[in-house]
Design goal:
single chain, alpha/beta, Rossmann fold, formyl-coa transferase, domain 3, 2 domains, 17 helices
Length: 398
Amino acid sequence: MEENLFRDLTVLSLEQATVVPYLTYRLVQDGMEVIRLESPDKGDPNRYIGDKFLEEQGMNTYFLPINAGKKAITLNLAEPRGQELLKELIVKLKVDIFITNQLPKNYKKLGIDYGALSAVKNDIIWLGISGFGPQVDEVAYDPVLQARGGLMELTGERNGVPVVTGIPLADMGTSEHGYGLLIKALYKRLKTGAGSEINLSMFESTVSWLTVPISLTESFNKHISRRGNTHEFFAPVSVYPTSDGYVYIAVGNDRQWESVAGIPAFRSLAREEYRLNAGRIADVDNLNQAMEQVTRTFTTDQLIAIFNEARVAISKVKSIQEVLQEPLVQQKLLSASDKQSGLKLTMAPPPYLTPYLESVSKELRFPPRMGEDNDEIYGQQLALPPEELALLRERKII
């Protein structure tokens, strides 16, 4: 088995919502120890979103999926003693990576800026994720970034209203960019011994996905907007009705179209004007209507068998329940079991089954309750005496 290279790394994360929690969840899957920091008064607002399945405060269903495998402590960074404790944590836990998605204007106020933390550990890797970078304190949420960053303009029916994507792509896309930057920073530290300060803008991350739309708009004066399920450059590519559902068919080149036109039920479309992709694109609306007239006479399974034999890409449009039945998904689902309630939590498969996930049989620690690890971290690792812990709790510093 490949060696787990990340097992000795410690991440301290002042995190909330989605963008940083998903990033640190990815680091958990590499085997890093992730400790999430939260304010002792209420903590991460996402703890209170979704169903209250466990019938306890701060463990609602929306919070659970991307927080498994982590530890959780509370710390009031508005208090001087809280900021002192943060520095003690950085030093005594030998923190390798510090991450936050606080507003940049709060960095110095809370004592979490790179200058303050690198002063106590000069090789620390510091990552601040914010809506628009450290020079802008504007609040941003995923749908706002999708709207401002062009994703909504590209999503939805051609003559319909703009639509948000089905997953929070501005959040999770930034998480993935942050993941890559952290791995680069770890390599830099390995080669040079130096830490890093990384400021990542969610807006810039979002706009960076607009590779083709920006080039075509700015360089070639094209108007790029939403097209529903069709493709800008290939046809036929769309969702088509069947007698019992929907399929997505993607014809990627003229050879594949020749295969489609050779299927007996589709031979009426074997026209000279459709022989090349440019001709199909020029008449895409009529082509798709003709395709639909044929596809709706078959069941989904019949069409999939026909197109697979023709070696043309096709898929049923599946529900989440159906996706869960896919053998490739079933084999790699992650799980976490709660000793307190007996609940078994099933989580999405990782993008890559890491050596660490293999070593723990894809079973992660159950998402932590607020301050669940205060006694271990403060009492054992920082060696604070019980009476001081009691006083810190009384003063709401932890």
